[in-house]
Structures are given as C-alpha cells and as structure tokens.
Inverse folding.
C-alpha cells in the first residue's frame, strides 16, 4: 500500500510538470506570433481567414465602437507599435489614424481598391465648415464592394507570405477559398436583387453606396455620408416623401448610431425598422457569436430583399 501511494504521488507530480511544460510551450508560441494590427472588421475578417492562428490579430477598433468617431488609447497605441504589419482602411474613414507614427510596415488599403466618388447630392458642406462638413469626395465604405474585398484579399495574402514565407501554401489555399466565398456572395446579391418591387432603401447614414451602385437600387439617408451630421427638417421631409412615393415597408438604422429619430419616422409613417450592418465594425454580441463578413453580408441581403420586395 505504501508503494502504491508513492507511485500515485509521483504520477501526480509528473502530470503537473507536463501541464506546466505544455502551458509554457503554448505561451512561448503565442509570444512568437507576429502581431498584425487592423482598423476595421472587414480587414480583420480577411486576415483571420487567410492567416488562421499563425498571427495574432490586433483590432485597433474595439467591438461596439463607431470607426468614424473612435479615439485611440495609450494602451492600444502600445499594442499597435508592437505589430509587424498594420492594415488600415484609409479614405478618410479613420481620422484618428493620423495620430499614429508607424514603426513597421503600414498599408493604407484604400490605395489598392476602386473608390466610389460621391454624387452631387451626397457631398455635404455646411456654411461654416464645421466638424460635420464632409470634404472628402470619396466613399470610404469600399469593403461593401465584393470586387474591392477580393483586391484586399490578394494584397493581404501577399503581405502575410512576406511575413511568414513558410506558410505560403496554406495562405494561398485560404486565399482561394476566401475569394470563392466573395464571388458566391456577389452572385447571390445579383440574383436576389435582380427583380424587386421597391427600388429604394432608407437608412440613417449613407453607407450603402457601393451596394446600391453595384446592384441597381437607390440608397437614401437622413444624415448623408457624415454620421455626426444632424438631419435638418428638410432631410426629414425628404425621407417622408420617399417612403410615401415608393410604398416602403421597412427603413434601416445602424447599430452604432442612435435609432431615436429613425424610429420616430417609422412610427409616423407606419413602417418597420430593421438593423443594417455596413461592417465598419461589429457589436459585442456579434463578436461573441463569431459573426463573419460572409454571415453578416448574407443577413444584409435577406433584409434588403424583404424591404424591397424582391422575388
């Protein structure tokens, strides 16, 4: 019996030592992973799907935060400085990015895509040129164009291969799968939105310009391109007329913006209110549910299809 107790004790000690070894080994592996900092959900989604767990992805934008008005914290800035690669959206989306001095390679992804120029009725400029004035004539929500997402996927894959050339075969395989997914999304949008009874979509922020252009519907918004702009009485009157003219059943708002005004309009006009996801960022609930660009864009398609009575 005494020998049995000694053997059992030694086995326990051995198991503890093995667990410590595995833990320390995993910790060392985690520490040796390169950091890749990204500024939007779309860039995070591409990077994670291509790299899998070979890199640690640091999102500069915490979940549940509007990318337009986010402010960097010292802690986050320190993390970004440790990154081997920085990917940011550009095109005026992140005014806070100018506060950073990058010590490593930083790519403005807007330089690799085809940007949409704003129409005359989308360009906002108030009399006093205040903070709500939009001086940029380019629409920064370019990740809602699947062709642009494909362009970014190729660029990011190439950068990851430069970072970890040993993983080239895996990255190229994952890239091809991701490209195929984007092509399937494009085909689904074309097919589903090809024939709709209503050709207009109303939301509180002009973020669907790329989708509207690519799939031939009209996007009307309360605040235009600038999410901080306060709608005027004439803006509200314009939206009322659009709803009456087209017989809409649903109007949209975004998760990170107040829904108070849009719900008030919906109540007065007897229409439904639904959330649309432009995917500059996602909510904490969506992050916990492991939402992906693909899953959320499929949800957007379903909601657009129902709102426009597509068949």
């Amino acid at each position: 019996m005494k020998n049995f107790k000694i053997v059992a004790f030694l086995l326990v000690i051995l198991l503890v030592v093995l667990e410590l070894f595995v833990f320390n080994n995993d910790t060392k592996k985690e520490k040796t992973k390169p950091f890749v900092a990204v500024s939007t959900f779309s860039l995070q989604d591409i990077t994670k799907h291509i790299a899998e767990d070979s890199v640690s992805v640091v999102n500069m934008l915490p979940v549940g935060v509007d990318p337009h008005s986010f402010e960097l914290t010292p802690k986050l800035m320190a993390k970004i400085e440790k990154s081997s690669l920085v990917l940011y959206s550009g095109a005026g989306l992140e005014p806070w990015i100018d506060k950073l001095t990058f010590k490593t390679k930083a790519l403005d992804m807007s330089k690799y895509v085809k940007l949409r120029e704003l129409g005359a009725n989308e360009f906002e400029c108030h009399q006093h040129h205040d903070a709500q004035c939009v001086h940029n004539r380019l629409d920064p929500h370019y990740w809602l164009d699947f062709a642009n997402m494909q362009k970014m996927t190729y660029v990011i894959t190439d950068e990851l291969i430069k970072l970890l050339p040993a993983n080239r075969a895996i990255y190229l395989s994952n890239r091809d799968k991701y490209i195929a997914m984007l092509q399937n999304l494009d085909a689904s949008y074309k097919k589903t939105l090809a024939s709709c009874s209503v050709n207009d979509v109303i939301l509180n922020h002009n973020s669907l310009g790329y989708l509207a252009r690519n799939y031939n519907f009209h996007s009307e918004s309360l605040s235009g391109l600038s999410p901080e702009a306060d709608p005027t009485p004439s803006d509200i009157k314009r939206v009322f007329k659009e709803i009456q003219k087209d017989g809409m059943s649903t109007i949209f708002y975004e998760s990170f913006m107040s829904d108070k005004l849009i719900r008030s309009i919906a109540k007065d006009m007897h229409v439904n209110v639904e959330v649309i996801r432009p995917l500059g960022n996602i909510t904490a609930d969506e992050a916990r549910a492991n939402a992906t660009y693909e899953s959320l864009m499929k949800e957007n398609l379903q909601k657009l299809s129902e709102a426009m009575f597509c068949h």
